[in-house]
Amino acid sequence: MKNSIPLSLLELAIINQDSNASETMDKTKELAQLVDNLGYSRFWLAEHHNMAHVASTATVVLIGFIASQTQNIRVGSGGIMLPNHSPLIIAEQFGTLATLYPNRIDLGLGRAPGTDTFTAQAIRKDFFEEAQQFPRNVAKLQRYFSEENAIAKVRAFPAEGMDVPIWILGSSMDSAKLAAEYGLPYAFAGHFAPKQMIQAFEFYRENFQPSAFLIEPKTMACVNVIAADSDEEAQFLSTSLYQMFLNLIRNDRKGLQPPVDSLEEIMNEEERFHVNQMTACTFAGNKESLVKSLKEFINYTRINELMITSPIFNHQDKLKSLKITKAVVDAINE
Hints:
Blueprint: E1 7-11, H1 21-38, E2 42-45, H2 59-68, E3 74-81, H3 87-100, E4 105-110, H4 117-123, H5 127-132, H6 134-145, E5 166-170, H7 173-182, E6 186-188, H8 197-207, E7 219-227, H9 231-237, H10 239-250, H11 269-278, E8 282-285, H12 287-301, E9 305-309, H13 315-333
Parallel strand pairs: 1-2, 1-9, 2-3, 3-4, 4-5, 5-6, 6-7, 7-8, 7-9
Helix pairs in contact: 1-13, 3-6, 7-8, 10-11, 12-13
């Protein structure tokens, strides 16, 4: 009997053109409640800074809000950018969340700043030195959560002894090495940097060291999924996603743009090359098409869990996409 693949959602809380942070947070709550009712496994939020079109800058605050508005789904970070923070503060914050919402909080950790160079240094002047200490700081964080830390001079309350699963997030071989060495679950950012995904997963599995947290390797891939009633509609809706990545490489800070009939006149050949590289793990189609393409992807990558992100301009279209995607994964799991 094959293992079922859990389905989760990474929500970037992207502010649409002509919208605002308040409306986006209300929509994020509605998305979380929908996927909670549908039986999604996790709802993760990402840490970004100095981005006018992203509403998840205070990630821990938003995680608490979403957890308070849902019942069963695990809520967490995809991720918290650890070099931005003291491990002690993160332990205290997530220990508090886990106290309020037992057995529902995940802590995904990343090494990048989640912003530009100038903002990273505004967050903390020694960011780049701290990024080099990422493995050490993950170990510090684990220690603060452990019961053994009770004899230490510095303790994290109410984190001590709390069960908050830590995931290592990444888009390169460095993260795979760390996750394997520490015996932690590993999530790969295939939704924007899929190039090294297969190589990273293979390295992680081959070099995994069992730990007190995990006996065998556990992998999750995050990909872009745009689902609709027809392939044509899904392709049309996906043009918002491609415009988002185009604006990213242009450093053009716009909100999420409405879909367009054609991308041909919007981007040049070089831009198209870079956008296509970043979005190689994008799946757009109707239920039947997605069952085929996502099943092939799951079998090829041998992942244990699938996480999706769905940057869709119209809120109702996005809600519908998430419903169809759940039906797709249910069909794959049959």
